Amino acid sequence: MTIKDYCLQISKLLEEADHEKSKAFIQLGNLYVINREEALSNIKNIYGGMGSFNDFVLFKDEKVDVEANEKLSALREDLYKAVVSEIIELRS
Helices (H) and strands (E) in the chain — how many of each? Predict the structure, then answer.
């Protein structure tokens, strides 16, 4: 999968959970097509600090949605690895 694909998959998962940040991932995916370096930087930055992307927890019917969170965790990890890999590639 491409970084845009990861962003779209995450957006879809967040939208299904009615999470407010679903559109932000569509925007990041689109930015990646227009300005790859800026998108990579923006995506990498959402992973740090309190209240960051790492802290997202998805709920369904006011309960933690274990299945959705497992999918999100896998996508989140794969996206981060892909971003770091591309950043390293750009710097070499």
Answer: 4, 2
Give pTM, 2 decimals.
Answer: 0.92
Do 16 and 5 form a contact (C-beta atoms < 8 A)? no
Cβ neighbours of 51 (radius 10 Å):
7
Q: How many residues in total does the chain contain? A: 92
Domain count along the chain: 1
Residue 34 lies in domain? 3-91
pLDDT, residue 20, reads 87
Encoded tokens for 3 = 């970084």
Check residue 30 and give its pLDDT: 97
Mean pLDDT by 10 residues, the chain (92 residues): 96 92 95 97 92 91 94 97 96 90
Q: How far is CA 72 from CA 4, 28, 38, 51, 88, in A?
A: 15, 16, 23, 16, 24
Query: How far is CA 51 from each of CA 1, 62, 92, rounded to the nearest angstrom?
Result: 27, 19, 32
